[in-house]
Amino acid sequence: MSSFAAFRPAAPSLSAGLTGKQAGGLFGWNTNKTFSNTALKGQNGFARRGTDAIRSLVMPPLKDASPLQILFTILSIVASLLILEQIMYRRKKAHLPGPKWTTPVVGKFLDSMKPDLAKYKLGWDSGPLSVASVFHIFIVVASSVDHTRKILNSSQYAEPCLVNAAKSIICPDNWVFLNGKPHLDYRKGLNNLFTARALEIYLGIQQEIYKRYFSEWLADKDPNPKPYQMLMRDLNMETSLRVFCGDYITDNDAKLVSEKYWAITMALELVNFPIPLPGTKVYRAIQARKMVMKLFMSAAAQSKVRMAEGEEVKCLTDAWIKAMLDARLERENPELGSDARRILVRDFSDREIALVVLSFLFASQDAMSSALVYLFQHVADRPEILRKVREEQYRLRAGDLDAPLTVDLIDQMEYTRSCVKESLRLKPPVIMVPYKTLKPFPIDAKYTVPKGAMVIPSFWNSLHDPQAYPQPDALKPERWMEGKDSPAQQNTRNWLVFGSGPHHCIGQQYAQMHLTAVLSAASVMMDWEHEVTPQSEQVEILCCIFPKDQARFKFTPRPTPSLGMSPEEAAAM
Ligand code: HEM
Description:
By secondary structure, this protein is of the alpha+beta class. The protein has two domains: 76 residues, no CATH class; 332 residues, CATH 1.10.630.10. The protein is 54% helix and 8% strand. The protein is built from 25 helices and twelve strands. Strands 1-2-8-5-3 form a five-stranded mixed β-sheet. Strands 4-12-9 form a three-stranded antiparallel β-sheet. Strand 10 and strand 11 form a beta hairpin. The longest helix has 31 residues. The protein is globular, with a radius of gyration of 27 Å. Bound molecules: protoporphyrin IX containing FE. Its EC number is 1.14.19.41. Keywords: Heme, Iron, Metal-binding, Monooxygenase, Oxidoreductase. This is sterol 22-desaturase.
C-alpha cells in the first residue's frame, strides 16, 4: 500500500480474521464471556432457549454417552452455533442493506479475496450505510460524505484498524499505531517536515531523479508499448528514499531497499498466513524491514553528526534533526508557556526517526504509484488536456526548460496542479480505510454501529458525486479553476482523497507537489503513447487501485521548441 490502504486493507485479512480474542468468539463460545453474554442478552428469545438446550445436551457425563449421542451432541452444538451466528448478524444488521443471511463461518471471505470495484459500487449505491461480515467480523461500510466524515472525525468512537501483519512488519511501537492525544502530539512534532522551506529542498532532489528515470525510459529501443507500473513504482521509491534520507544511503543500498521493499508490499495482501514462520510472506517482510530500519537508523545517526556541525539541510531526516536542535535552544527560552514547550520538537532517538521514515515509505509507496500511473494514463488518453499542461509549462518556464523547479513555480502551475487534483479525484488511489469501533457508535439517528465492528469509510461516491462534480466520470481539470462559487469549491467536504480528521494524510502537500513536478518535467521532456487495452479502464484493487493492464506506454523524446515559438505553438508541436 504500499499506501495507507496497506495499513488499512480494502477488506479484513485472514490474519486479522483469525487472531486474538475475537477468534474465540467464533470457536470458543463456551469460554468467551463477550460472545455468550451477548447471545444471552439477545432480544430474540431463541438465543436463550438455544443455549439452554445445548447446555442440557452436554450435561450428561460423556463416559455414559453412546457414540450416537456424542455425534448428536456435536451436531447440535454446531447447528446451534450456526443459528446463533445468523441471529447475531441479523441483530447487528438491523434495517441496513446487505445480505439477509451471512454465509456460515466465512461470511464474505471469498469476495474479500478477489476485491472487485463493480461489487463494491453495488454496496456503496445500496445506501449510505451497508453491512457484510467476514468470518466473525461484522462490517459496516459508509459511502456518503456525512457518514464517511463522521467516522474519520470521531476518534472517541472509532480508530484506524490495521491488519495484524502490519504491526509485526512496521513494528508495534510505530507512531502510526498511536491514537487520541499521544497521536496528536506526535504528529505536531512531524509538521516541520513538510513546511514550504522543507518542500523546496525536496524538489531539488526530486528533479534529478525524474530526469534520470525519463532518460532511461527514452533509451528503451523497443518501439512497442510495455507495462510501466513497476517502473513508475521504482521512480517513486527512489524519490522517496532520496527525499527522506538523501545521500546517507548509498546507490547500492537504495537499489536493495527497492527490491526488498517488494516483500513488504506482498505481505500486505488481503489474505496472508498470520504466523510469521520462515518462508512465509510476513516473515520475508519482517526481514526486509530489519534491513531497511538499519539503513534508516544509520542515516539518522549520520545526520545528527552533520547537523550538529551546522551543515546544510539536504533531506527530510536533516530537516527533522535541524528542527530538533533548534527546538532544544527554544526550550531554554524562559518565556515559553508549558504547552508550547510540550509541543516543540522533543529529542527523537535514531530508532524513532527510522520508524517514522519507515511509516512514510509504507504509507506512500502504493498510493503514489497508483496516482502516478493514472496521471500518465489520464493525460495521454486526453491529448487536449496534455496540450494545455504543456502550454502552461512553456509559458511559465519562459524558454528555460532546465531551470530548477521551485515551490513558487509549482504554485503558479494552476492548470497542471488542477490536472493532478482531478486525476486523483477520478481514480482515488485509496478507496477506503478500515476503522474499528471502540464502543457503540451512534453514527446517525437511526443506527448505532456495535462495539468491535469494522467500520469502513469509503471515498468513491463522495469523489464521484454529481452535485459536487458535475459529469463525475469526466476528467475536467477546469472544475478546480472555476472560483469559489463552483460546485467543487462549494463542496470541499467531498474531497476525501487524503482522508479527513486526526489521521488525515500527513504527506498530502508533498504528494501533490511530487505529482505536479513529475507531470511538469515529463510534459516538456517526453511524448508518450498509451496503448489502450480492454483492461485499461478495468480496476485492479491491490492495496490501492491500478489499471488491470499495468499501464502500457511508449515514451519518445520531445523536441525542444525553436526560439521565438509561442507557448501555444510549442505545445501544439
Ligand atoms: C497520492 C498519494 C497519497 C494518498 C492518496 C494518500 C492517502 C492517505 C489516506 C486516505 C490516509 C488515511 C487518512 C484517514 O484515515 O483519514 C493516509 C494516511 C497517511 N499518509 Fe498518505 N497518501 C498519499 C501519500 C502519502 C505520502 C507521500 C506520505 C508521506 C510522506 C504519506 C503518509 C501518510 C501517513 C503517515 C498517514 C497516517 C497518518 C496518521 O495516522 O496520522 N501519505 N494517506
